[in-house]
């Protein structure tokens, strides 16, 4: 039996309407937390040269910062989902901000590599709780048909944090130096934690805010993984997200400049424009999925097939020297795939009840990040094995693993998503509280106590006493002394 422990009532007199002003303000504060987290996540890229001078390390040691931060983020996805379900998004977002503030404080005062690595690890730990908690808020505060577009807008907010945070951070490092800059980001995170604790509520109805549950954690995790929709969502995130992450975070610029001979300016412009593409495409996909959920499967399979075609063409092109126009298409289609990967969370939401929404989102998130991390590391290994020349044939070899992942994922999605093409949201799902819907309706059966009146057997009244209805209803209607 499931037991829920209720948190102390929030200062609200009644429940708020789904999708109203209060809902948008709650989600807006949560999205701002994700923007700050994304800013922390990408801040090291701007401060890489300053970090080398401060700690006296080379590029290999400096890469340990990024690997540790991404590794902590990946490992903590399922635990963060569990804690978002158990303790609520409000508490987890506040704890995430305080963890990132402490990590940035250590990073600001660190003069040795171990303390700096510890600081970045704490930043990654706090970052791991943000996206899942914001998605959990969107599932509770908005109707089902808006969930896909809210997920896309959340991801778009993170991208804005990456784009908008580079210039201010660079200017602050030049003007104020290392310690004041990163200490200022820590103070910003701590101040935002106060806003989160004061304003965010886990649910529009105060009585529905659960602080914890007595459900066994492993049982919840098994139920999430058992759902066909969850497994489909993992494959969708695995296939669609990884390609653009490989290009945008590490290998896109070297591939365009050294592999294909593109100029530095055009290469930066290409990556910038394609990074902005998800800002437009992701909300459009989310809006369409909310209005026509039956099209989600076709959208995901179509984008995955386009990804497979362009990547197979790139790794099999004679000599490896792609035309510039096709290289732009390759990066652009990869960016569209990253935008379409947000539909995976919509599939997982329909497959799981709200009480397991955080765990489901964490499991889905593992798919894309594990594929991206594996593909990036394998590409670097294969480039070194090819002599480190970074020419076009070397990049063809380096991109072979990610191409194989995309092809396998596309085939698997084509097989899995056929039932989802006929899936509709459950009738009456306008409250945000729904259960997983089966792919086929269960046969209708009636017990004697619940048999409809038309199916009730005819009984002849007894000649000496009045007729009484049989069963539990009759016993409950008798007077009690």
UniProtKB/TrEMBL annotation:
Main localization, broad class: membrane
Gene Ontology MF: a single term: transmembrane transporter activity
Ranges of residues in domain Major facilitator superfamily (MFS) profile: 26-421
PROSITE patterns per UniProt: MFS
Chain segments carrying region Disordered: 424-481
Record bears the keyword Transport: yes
Keywords of the record: Membrane, Transmembrane, Transmembrane helix, Transport
Biased composition annotated in UniProt, kind: Basic residues: 457-481
Membrane spanning residue stretches: 24-43, 55-75, 95-117, 123-142, 149-169, 181-200, 232-253, 265-287, 299-318, 324-345, 357-377, 397-417
Keyword Transmembrane helix applies: yes
Localization: Cell membrane
Membrane topology, as annotated: Multi-pass membrane protein
InterPro entries per record: MFS, MFS_dom, MFS_trans_sf
One Gene Ontology cellular component annotation held by this UniProt entry: plasma membrane
One Pfam family of this chain: MFS_1
PANTHER family: PERMEASE-RELATED (PTHR43791), TRANSPORTER, PUTATIVE (AFU_ORTHOLOGUE AFUA_6G08340)-RELATED (PTHR43791:SF36)
Protein name, per record: MFS transporter
Source taxonomy: Bacteria, Bacillati, Actinomycetota, Actinomycetes, Streptosporangiales
């Amino acid at each position: 039996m499931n037991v829920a422990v209720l948190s102390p009532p929030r200062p609200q007199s009644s429940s708020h309407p789904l999708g109203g002003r209060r809902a948008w303000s709650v989600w807006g504060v949560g999205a701002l937390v994700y923007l700050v987290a994304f800013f922390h996540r990408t801040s090291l890229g701007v401060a890489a040269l300053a970090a080398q001078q401060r700690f006296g390390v080379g590029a290999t040691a400096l890469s340990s910062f990024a690997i540790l931060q991404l590794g902590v983020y990946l490992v903590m996805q399922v635990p963060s989902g569990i804690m978002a379900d158990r303790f609520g998004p409000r508490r987890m977002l506040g704890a995430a901000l305080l963890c990132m503030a402490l990590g940035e404080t250590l990073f600001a005062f660190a003069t040795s590599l171990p303390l700096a690595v510890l600081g970045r690890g704490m930043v990654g730990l706090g970052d791991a709780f943000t996206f899942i908690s914001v998605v959990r808020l969107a599932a509770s505060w908005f109707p089902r048909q808006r969930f896909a577009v809210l997920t896309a807008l959340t991801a778009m907010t993170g991208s804005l944090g990456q784009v908008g945070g580079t210039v201010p951070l660079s200017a602050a490092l030049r003007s104020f130096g290392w310690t004041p800059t990163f200490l200022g980001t820590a103070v910003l995170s701590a101040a935002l934690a106060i806003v989160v604790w004061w304003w965010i509520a886990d649910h529009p109805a105060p009585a529905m805010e659960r602080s914890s549950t007595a459900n066994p954690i492993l049982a919840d995790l098994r139920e999430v993984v058992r759902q066909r929709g969850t497994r489909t969502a993992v494959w969708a995130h695995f296939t669609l997200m990884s390609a653009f992450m490989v290009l945008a975070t590490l290998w896109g610029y070297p591939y365009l400049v050294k592999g294909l001979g593109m100029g530095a300016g055009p290469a930066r412009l290409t990556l910038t424009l394609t990074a902005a593409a998800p800002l437009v495409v992701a909300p459009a996909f989310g809006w369409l999925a909310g209005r026509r959920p039956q099209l989600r499967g076709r959208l995901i399979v179509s984008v995955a097939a386009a990804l497979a075609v362009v990547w197979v063409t790139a790794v099999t092109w004679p000599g490896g020297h792609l035309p510039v126009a096709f290289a732009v298409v390759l990066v652009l289609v990869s960016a569209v795939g990253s935008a379409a990967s947000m539909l995976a969370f919509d599939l997982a939401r329909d497959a799981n009840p709200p009480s397991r929404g955080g765990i489901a989102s964490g499991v889905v998130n593992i798919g894309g990040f594990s594929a991206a991390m594996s593909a990036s590391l394998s590409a670097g290994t294969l480039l070194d094995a090819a002599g480190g020349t970074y020419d076009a044939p070397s990049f063809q070899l380096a991109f072979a693993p990610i191409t194989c992942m995309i092809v396998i994922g596309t085939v698997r999605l084509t097989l899995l998503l056929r039932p989802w093409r006929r899936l509709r949201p459950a009738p009456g799902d306008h409250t945000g509280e729904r259960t997983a819907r089966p792919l086929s309706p269960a046969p209708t059966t009636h017990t004697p106590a619940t048999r409809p009146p038309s199916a009730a057997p005819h009984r002849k009244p007894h000649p000496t006493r009045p007729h009484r209805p049989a069963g539990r209803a009759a016993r409950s209607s008798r007077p009690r002394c």
